[in-house]
Design brief:
Strand order of the largest sheet: 2-1-11-10-12-13-14-15-16
Radius of gyration: 23 Å
Bound molecules: 5'-O-[(S)-butoxy(hydroxy)phosphoryl]adenosine
Shape: globular
Oligomer: single chain
CATH architecture of the largest domain: 3-Layer(aba) Sandwich
CATH superfamily of the largest domain: ANL, N-terminal domain
Number of domains: 2
């Protein structure tokens, strides 16, 4: 029997107090996600249960019980407190998927500070804009990433401390840098947990939009109410599960469901911090006896490509439940997974802004391959007419995916950017920025984004950010960045570039430009193709018509360009 039981019954009788009651929370109580994910689980008699089973590069291994997590996070908290970190200070985690990332996240929350996780493959410019916007005071990182921090540190006056978790003490440290090693510290038994309340800020995740710099999505401790229950009902997590979320906590899936969801339920999770290979992934599932697996379409498509032979070499019979998020999950992948794993990958839809799963397929529900399923109980969802912002009445008609505000894990604002936050609402609806249709049976079907943001392998890349970075390259006079189709990643970054006089359009220059963006922003933002053009199509007011370039890449009808020219 699945945790959710009957979807219809749950929808009918739903109240978020179900989650509050299970967590023993009452309005007005202190609420600290860090405490819920460690101390409370120990108090419930699971102190010796494994919380984290970790495998890294070169066969490195480590495992932590819930009591180990409690102690290690206390230790990190106290260290941060001693160097002067106060509640609501932003502490950035700039780490690979090493145990310190998971433990640091909880440690930061326990003292009421705000955790700001950033993808460790980010280059110095991506790091810079996000630390600057958040006015981050402390960054926790590894030796291998310190060079990027050093490059920008002087530009961020607020950044006081750079904590390195794996420094051997041999190479000299620079001003503001310090070493913290969990192994060297005496575990802290007792810690005064900061009395955060429901609305106290907890996590700051940066997400990319079409225009402007990335936006800091501010979440609060009350998000737990949503993350706990969705992890229980959608991921169907049970006490004896071994759960594997393949997402990196630099992105929201990796925190909402790679830390908070499973640990608040006292569920054992495992982490693989090596690069992707089908063989390594199947081996990991077999070895750890993974039962619940939450992954992403690009990974699933890569596994499909690797073929079925490699699957036969592994015993994957432990798998009980599979789910996916981040980008459209094509029906072929859903059908394939049933064939090879005996289970469908169930598609789930949500965003950094929503904090938790919003539309989803549930265990036990009829699967329609290619559909995102139905709203989570308690979520009021609709597809709105893009002009009137009223729900479209006809089944199958395309509109904007929108949600009625008020679910627990919804963002509370964009950091230092209240205007952009306000612009996300119309007629009392939160606008997701995605388009979909709803069929007669209430299933949602994804159509596409309503903006120019590129979703490459489940990661959002802002064309504006890439264009701005391109302009900093000595050879680039003008640029426009759009998505181009890709078999595995669905979309990849393509750049149209007008080069400056004195530079030759060559393959060598293309490689140089690619490398420049990879280092500055990230491998995700790196153009997979650069097309040299003499000029870019522009509106009368001089705005680049990305949509025209996009349509060409996707072989779509360009339509009436005169309207495009008038668009602002
Ligand atoms: C955007 C949000 C929180 C999940 C990780 C990504 C796209 C997400 C699906 C899905 C089609 C999806 C949307 C959404 N997206 N899930 N099941 N089917 N598209 O979080 O980085 O904030 O991205 O990812 O476009 O708006 P994110």
């Amino acid at each position: 029997m699945s945790n959710i039981g009957s979807y219809e019954k749950r929808v009918k009788n739903f109240n978020w107090s179900i989650s509050e009651k299970e967590l023993g929370y009452k309005e007005g109580d202190d609420l600290n996600i860090g405490w819920y994910c460690s101390d409370r689980i120990c108090q419930m008699g699971k102190a010796n249960k494994p919380a984290l089973i970790w495998e890294g590069l070169g066969g490195k291994k480590n495992s932590y019980t819930f009591n180990d997590v409690r102690l290690a996070t206390n230790t990190i908290s106290l260290f941060l407190k001693k160097i002067g970190v106060k509640n609501e200070d932003r502490v950035c985690l700039f780490l690979d998927k090493i145990p310190e990332l998971y433990l640091g996240f909880i440690g930061i929350l326990k003292i009421g500070a705000i955790a700001q996780p950033l993808f460790s493959a980010f280059g110095d410019e991506s790091l810079h804009v996000r630390l600057e916007n958040a006015e981050t005071t402390v960054i926790i990182t590894q030796r291998k990433h310190v060079a990027k921090v050093r490059k920008i540190k002087d530009k961020i006056p607020n950044l006081k401390h750079v904590i390195i978790v794996d420094h051997d003490g041999k190479k000299p440290l620079r001003e503001g840098e310090m070493i913290f090693s969990l192994k060297e510290e005496t575990p802290v038994e007792e810690l005064e947990i900061f009395p955060t309340k429901a609305e106290s800020p907890s996590v700051l995740h940066y997400t990319s939009g079409t225009t402007g710099q990335p936006k800091g999505v501010k979440h609060v401790h009350y998000s737990l109410i949503g993350q706990y229950l969705t992890a229980k009902w959608v991921l169907d997590l049970k006490d004896n599960d071994i759960y594997w979320c393949t997402a990196d906590p630099g992105w929201v899936t990796g925190t909402s469901y790679g830390i908070i969801g499973p640990w608040s339920l006292g569920v054992t999770q495992c982490v693989l911090d090596t690069g992707f290979s089908a063989e390594a992934w199947y081996k990991f599932i077999e070895k750890q006896k993974v039962t619940v697996w939450y992954s992403a379409p690009t990974a699933i498509r890569s596994l499909m490509k690797a073929g079925d032979e490699v699957i036969k070499k592994h015993d994957l019979s432990s798998l009980r439940h599979l789910a996916s998020v981040g980008e459209p999950l094509n029906s072929e992948a859903v059908i394939w997974s049933k064939k090879v794993f005996g289970k469908h990958f169930l598609d789930t839809y949500w965003q950094t802004e929503t904090g938790a799963i919003m539309l989803t397929n549930f265990p036990g529900m009829k699967v329609k391959p290619g559909s995102m399923g139905k709203p989570f109980p308690g979520i009021t969802a609709e597809v709105l007419d893009p002009k009137s912002f009223e729900p479209v009445e006809e089944p199958g008609k395309i509109g904007l995916i929108a949600f009625k505000p008020g679910w627990p894990s919804m963002m509370r604002t964009y950091w230092n950017n209240e205007d952009t936050y306000k612009a996300k609402f119309a007629n009392d609806w939160y606008l997701s920025g995605d388009r979909a249709s709803i069929d007669k049976e209430g299933y949602y079907w994804f159509v596409g984004r309503d903006d120019d943001v590129i979703n490459t392998g489940g990661h959002l890349v802002s064309p504006f950010e890439v264009e701005s970075a391109l302009l900093e390259h000595e050879a680039v006079a003008e640029s426009a960045v759009v998505a181009k189709p890709d078999e595995v990643n669905m979309e990849v970054v393509k750049a149209f570039v007008v080069i400056k006089p004195g530079f030759e359009p060559s393959e060598e220059l293309e490689l140089k430009i690619m490398n420049f963006i990879r280092k500055k922003l990230s491998p995700l933002a790196m153009p997979q193709e650069t097309e040299y053009v003499d000029s870019l199509p522009k509106t009368r007011s001089g705005k680049i018509m990305r949509r025209l370039l996009h349509a060409k890449e996707w072989g779509e009808e360009i339509g009436d360009t005169s309207t495009l020219e008038d668009e602002e």
